[in-house]
From TrEMBL:
Organism of provenance: Gordonia paraffinivorans NBRC 108238
Molybdopterin dinucleotide-binding domain boundaries: 656-712
Region (Disordered): 1-26
Keyword flag Metal-binding: yes
Residues in the signal sequence: none
Obligatory cofactor(s): [4Fe-4S] cluster; Mo-bis(molybdopterin guanine dinucleotide)
Domain of life: Bacteria
Keywords from the UniProt entry: 4Fe-4S, Iron, Iron-sulfur, Metal-binding, Molybdenum, Oxidoreductase
Metal-binding is among the record's keywords: yes
NCBIfam families in the cross-refs: Fdhalpha-like
UniProt protein name: Oxidoreductase
Pfam families: Molybdopterin, Molydop_binding
Annotated ranges, domain Molybdopterin oxidoreductase: 128-504
Family: Belongs to the prokaryotic molybdopterin-containing oxidoreductase family.
Amino acid sequence: MSPSPQGDPRTTEPSITEPREVHRKHPKTWAAGVPAVAVALKRGLEQMGPVRTAQTLFHLNQRNGFDCPGCAWPETPGHRKHAEFCENGAKAVAEEATRRAVTPEFFARHGVEDLRTRSGYWLSQQGRLAHPMYLAPGDTHYRPVSWDEAYGIIADELGALSSPDEAVFYTSGRTSNEAAFVYQLFARSLGTNNLPDCSNMCHESSGAALGTSIGIGKGSVTVPDLEAADLILIAGQNPGTNHPRMLATLEKAKHNGARIVAINPLPEAGLMRFKDPQKVGGVLGSGTPLADDFLQLRLGSDMALFRGVARLLRDAERAAPGTVFDHEFLDEHCAGVDDYLALLDDVDLDEVADITGLTRKQIEDLADAVRTSQRIVLCWAMGLTQHRHAVATIAEGTNVLLLRGMIGKPGAGLCPVRGHSNVQGDRTMGIYEKMPESFLAALDAEFGITSPRKHGYDTVAAIKAMAAGRVRVFMAMGGNFVSATPDTEATAAALGKCALTVHVSTKLNESHLATGRHALILPTLGRTDLDVVDGVPQRVSVEDSMSVVHLSRGSLPPVSDQLRSEVAIVCELAQRAFGTDHAVPWAQLMSDYDVIRDRIERVIPGFEDFNIRVRRSDGFVLPHPPRDSRSFDTPDGKAHFAHHPLEWVPIPEGRLILQTLRSHDQYNTTVYGHDDRYRGISGNRRVVMVNPADITALGLRDGQHVDIVSEFRGSDGLEERRVHDFEIVAYDTPRGNAAAYYPETNPLVPLDSVAKESNTPVSKAVVIRLEPA
Ligand SMILES: Nc1nc2c(c(=O)[nH]1)N[C@H]1C(S)=C(S)[C@@H](COP(=O)(O)OP(=O)(O)OC[C@H]3O[C@@H](n4cnc5c(=O)[nH]c(N)nc54)[C@H](O)[C@@H]3O)O[C@H]1N2
Ligand SMILES: Nc1nc2c(c(=O)[nH]1)N[C@H]1C(S)=C(S)[C@@H](COP(=O)(O)OP(=O)(O)OC[C@H]3O[C@@H](n4cnc5c(=O)[nH]c(N)nc54)[C@H](O)[C@@H]3O)O[C@H]1N2
Ligand SMILES: [Mo]
């Protein structure tokens, strides 16, 4: 295909503004509004030029357009014809649809050592990867290879494994359903379940908790439910930055009379007030206040808060039997309630106040709101999932909703807000190191393969296996493994022990420089790119945070004719690795994505008439037994009250608890710029936000430069990790709690510090001390 003029790549190196000194302004008390539009347009024009900017922003989340590669927040049903503006969605698109290109000449100019000295920001600003590149053993520079050579290199290494379990296949959550399905089929045809994914670091704790409590690891609400709720609790989530389109839903809920409670250590602007840039009122007026209550609790104390609320509900029920609990729901649909109520005897509400840092009155008010509301939704994200006791915390929040019968009725339910735009779909497609027997059996029957039954590695287990020399081939379908995972130095060293590392990527990142003995970078099409097979434009499908599956079609001419789709890369590699007479018809699968969808339909329940229903303008909703019919796919068919011992995060003397979080100007490890606008911090990301009273108590001062040292008691005693030269910023965070940006602080997160049951790295509670630099 010949690129149109606006598709011509820019190959001169862009001039990059590297970080300078930190600037502070007052944190914002509202989100979006006119500045959001201005920033989005500026970034769009810089990266894409005027024509592509207009083309992409017009096609974002449209009926015939592409699914936004930003977050997994759903479209409002029936609204897909209107452009839904979102600053950070626009930035995600600009980042992908940039005209800048990383060519073989770029790699000839910059050796791997040189690139290792560059920041992640500098790397991603270079533009789209434009040619397959190979770093041969002992080489200093990546050099161009043909696709054939690249497949040959991978197939040779896979052929030389002494066990298929010496290969690991990572996935990041942007991969489409079709690509994810063929990718896991490839891994299982090879004979391994080593399919770690970004979800292991993200909502794994939600999946683990909900799986046990309600029998399915997905949220139980839809957008109309949120709009109809009378109480919405938002715990551990910063929607103004990470799910901006959620604010429009919250605004609507608010207009319908909902009360919104923000539960967060930080007064995030998006939780406070929203100015919809698409409405006159949002441009000229003061916007809509969102949160009615802001509960500024300490890091890791949500479980205590939920348990305190449960205790108050129980007391109210005892005082006026039959008025608080939903007895019909409890009797008919739940197990374990009596044991849970007994556990509540031990709750000391003064202790809950101490742990959370909230007042008794705040806790009682929340319990009153939960007691008197008829339709309650609990939303959460990384602030709950990335703690040692994350699974117990989410299960505790679920217990509270169960007591009031808030599952499987309109306007109520559980709402884990997913991150990557198709992370939920990838899991549905089998990207999981321990898929159930029913899935594996169906896959085997459909394709005539024998999937391995032994569970594979998740992300943390994969790093440990690499470190132990048990992995020879590491392949990543997207993502930035070395920067997103904990313990950056240890992880880079582990990757270095692999024979071959392979990255299927859209943009250059640090993981391309954390190589095995040899390494490949394979450039792929993104969501915005036109994907044509035999003259026919292909569409892919994705599943949003509320289990809605719909189509996405890119429209932009790719930045180079060397880019291949993720589906093609997997299927071509499979033909090379397994030969053309393999049981799986790889050539046929890649010839038309409808064929893949037909196969998905035969393997995965809920995809009946996939190709027909996915073409409806709003797509279709996957089944969710608790939501649809209050049925629970647990051994006894009931929802289960969890009975975990109460846990929280104590703050050792002279230490702080650090959470690692996102600024307003990044997408995970991809830094778009240095302006965390809502928090009023710009210029440089190496900052640590600390409560002013703690700064004084620690004998430090605002603006001082410090090293952050993390302390972790591992099996071999006290371990320390250090990152250098961070500026202290006095900030409104609870006493004893601090915050700094991910991924700069990932070297501080110990690989062994993981959530119980879900094995998710504990990124929101790192014990630290600050040492003057
Ligand atoms: N623009 C943009 N959008 C994104 C992303 C991005 O990087 N940029 N990333 C995507 C991905 S993969 C994900 S998973 C989501 C992440 O979305 P979020 O979970 O909103 O992301 P974080 O920045 O990690 O923010 C965590 C929030 O939880 C709060 N928090 C931290 N610890 C606690 C706690 O113990 N209790 C409570 N109650 N609150 C706590 C923090 O103060 C912060 O407000 O966003 C997705 N969308
Ligand atoms: N300390 C700390 N660590 C964390 C977190 C935290 O809050 N704190 N959050 C965790 C969470 S929630 C997540 S989800 C992970 C994220 O982990 P990952 O998903 O691994 O990381 P990303 O930064 O999203 O990956 C960005 C890269 O993906 C590639 N890419 C983008 N789009 C596409 C595409 O369409 N196809 C392909 N093949 N490649 C593409 C680009 O090359 C880009 O450089 O990080 C986790 N790590
Ligand atoms: Mo995530």
